[in-house]
Specification:
This protein is α/β, with parallel strands linked by helices. Helix content is about 45%, strand content about 20%. It has helices at about 1-20, 25-40, 45-60, 65-70, 75-90, 130-140, 155-170, 185-190, 210-215, 240-250, 270-285, 295-300, 310-315, 330-340, 355-360, and strands spanning about 100-105, 110-115, 120-125, 145-150, 180, 200-205, 230-235, 260-265, 290, 305, 320-325, 345-350, 365-370, 390, 400, 405-415. Strand 9, helix 12 (about 295-300) and strand 10 (about 305) form a beta-alpha-beta unit. Helix 2 (about 25-40) packs across helix 7, helix 6 (about 130-140) runs parallel beside helix 7 (about 155-170) and helix 10 crosses helix 11 (about 270-285).
Length: about 425
């Protein structure tokens, strides 16, 4: 009962704070966010010390190397977190933006304007940088935020949260604008997800199990940041040197993130030329290959290449594991992606404009690329400052969720005495 009361009071406070945030000027919000960015750098030692505790516990629990990578903070990553906040401060404030205006036959002047969503709850796993990104974006878009990170990153999340909350206090901003559920008891999430009176939107960011659980339990609208089964399709008209660079980057540069390539598709007409060198490069980098029959034949029984199953093509590995399939044509590639993929990020490597246009038109994913790595699906890389996550939903937002996606809109109607007859 005490836990329910605690979480409910947290949500009530966030709702009250949201009413004040809508009146903050862009100047004040930007000043606060810049000070948050500076505070992260000033307090980096305490943040790294807290992160070291999480890493020790994670290694004792024998978490995977990919998981440990997502959990790890370094001076460079803290600098990147700070840079993201500075970038958010530079961006135009979406709140109050006029989307459209018109006048009706009755003489009413109607304005469609952006407005904050209200109170947003974000439930996430492992990556501590999500804490600062979410706080900066939600605050700039005029929303109160309630954060619930994973137990494996609790020390890191709390350290970042306390640093940024102190900046709010110094600037006279309601402290309940930024909240964190600090208890590891899983019942806290179940309680939070039923508080639709106070919370307007829930965004889960993590593994498939987390997404399914939140969606099943929540009484609040959910925008899902689902798994990233991302593909690169090497077309028959691809520049194979470019294709090799893109595929290697998409898989190996940082395999434990949602925009890393999990499946590589290769046109049959270039497979014999492309795959021998590409497979060799992957194997030398420690990548395990799960391949189709043709892939196995081309790999000639090399250690590290095994037969792919249907389950492999549905799997988000988040590790140095890659499924590979040789396809007959672009139609088969698109069909494979739309069937096995998670509608996150997919790339075609080609010099053929018609095939590029067909891929962009027919692949049903949030982010569809021509001749570039899937690793660019990221709010910061898109010039959006940062992101809450990558939405694989179609409503109300899709792709990197940044400032604009953290607003809704309202109609403001001006009259001069009109009545309806």
């Amino acid at each position: 009962m005490r836990l329910k009361e605690e979480i409910t009071n947290l949500a009530k406070g966030a709702r009250q704070a949201a009413r004040h945030l809508v009146n903050l000027s862009s100047t004040v919000k930007n000043k606060v966010i810049k000070e948050m960015a500076e505070a992260l750098l000033a307090e980096k030692k305490s943040i790294l010390d807290a992160n070291a505790k999480d890493l020790r516990q994670g290694r004792m629990q024998r978490l995977s190397s990919a998981f440990i990578d997502r959990l790890t903070l370094t001076e460079k990553r803290i600098r990147e977190m700070s840079d993201s906040l500075f970038e958010i401060a530079k961006l135009d404030d979406p709140v109050g933006e006029l989307i459209k205006e018109w006048k009706t036959k009755s003489g009413l002047c109607i304005n469609k304007v952006r407005t904050p969503i209200g109170v947003i709850a974000i439930i996430y796993e492992s990556r501590p940088n999500v804490t600062s990104d979410c706080i900066g974006l939600c605050f700039k878009a005029g929303n109160s935020v309630i954060l619930r990170g994973g137990s494996e990153s609790l020390n890191s999340n709390l350290a970042i949260f306390r640093v940024l909350k102190e900046v709010l206090s110094k600037n006279g901003v309601p402290e309940n604008a930024v909240n964190m559920v600090s208890v590891s008891d899983r019942r806290a999430v179940d309680i939070l997800l039923k508080l639709n009176t106070y919370i307007d939107l829930v965004m889960p960011r993590g593994g498939e199990g987390l997404i399914r659980r939140v969606t099943a339990v929540s009484r609040i609208p959910v925008i899902k940041h689902y798994k990233g089964i991302c593909h690169v399709y090497v077309d028959e008209w691809a520049d194979l040197n470019m294709a090799e660079r893109i595929c290697f980057n998409a898989k190996v540069q940082r395999p434990g993130v949602c925009n890393a390539m999990e499946s590589m598709l290769v046109h049959k007409d270039v497979a014999a030329r492309f795959l021998p060198g590409m497979l060799k490069k992957f194997l030398e980098a420690g990548v395990q290959i799960r391949g189709c029959g043709i892939t196995l034949k081309i790999g000639r029984g090399a250690k590290g290449i095994v037969k792919a199953t249907k389950k492999d093509y549905f799997t988000e590995y988040l590790d140095l594991i890659l499924s590979v399939r040789v396809v007959d044509n672009i139609e088969e590639a698109i069909e494979h992606i739309n069937y096995y993929g998670s509608h996150h990020s997919d790339t075609i490597v080609t010099d053929d404009e018609e095939n590029a246009a067909k891929f962009l038109r027919e692949v049903d994913s949030a982010c569809v690329y021509v001749n570039a790595s899937t690793r660019f699906t990221d709010g910061y890389q898109f010039g959006l400052g940062a992101e809450i996550g990558i939405s694989t939903d179609k409503l109300h937002a899709r792709g990197p969720m940044a400032l604009e996606e953290l607003t809704t809109y309202k109609y403001q109607i001006y009259g001069n005495g009109q009545i309806r007859v």
